[in-house]
Give the backbone structure.
Amino acid sequence: FVGSKLWHGLFGGSSDFAGDGTADVVIEVHSGDSTTAIGQTLQERNVVSSSKAFVEAAAANPAIAAIQPGFYKVRTEIPASSAVQRLADPASRVGQMVIPEGRQLDDVADVKTDAVTKGILSLISDASCVDLDGTRACVSADDLKRAAGTADLGALSVPGWATAEATAMGDDHRRLEGLIAPGSWNVNPSGSAEQILASLIGASAAQYEANGLLAAAETTGMSPYEILVVASL
């Protein structure tokens, strides 16, 4: 006999999972994803039995239209209607972070009060934390610091206009100072320290360029890297 999952995969049925699921998993909703695209992601990660089942369930829930790009904790092998409800629940969103203006990579302690202002690496670490099946996992600030100082600049998505000056810093993690832009970001809790940094640096570089950084460098006579370092201090 052909297994039910194989049967429906071959012949296009939209049978549904039942129950509360098997294991926690983090999935990503990309910018511009259609309901069908989200359903395909969920099917690939074994969250729903089929994209078709998800699309059918989503049609009955208008909240699906408000789902934002980002990362969500769901469970494998759950009914499509449950998957829709979980994605629509703000509590399922993970990996969100905000980097304030002027924040540096490292934590800063107030010399008078000893109060600590978390740096970008600590903020990233906090955002990376997720509870999967009762076990809390985070990418540590130390791992991020190590990757910032030793990982290949290309693997970190450092743009060409910053490579020479970042290389000159050697293995100092502060070679990445200024390359992660302030603002709201989504961090993949399943990613490695290197992958998370690369995602943030690559997206930041595109944002900087779109906002006229390269033109500003020509006007001021400073390099793009110098402008970002000065702005971060």
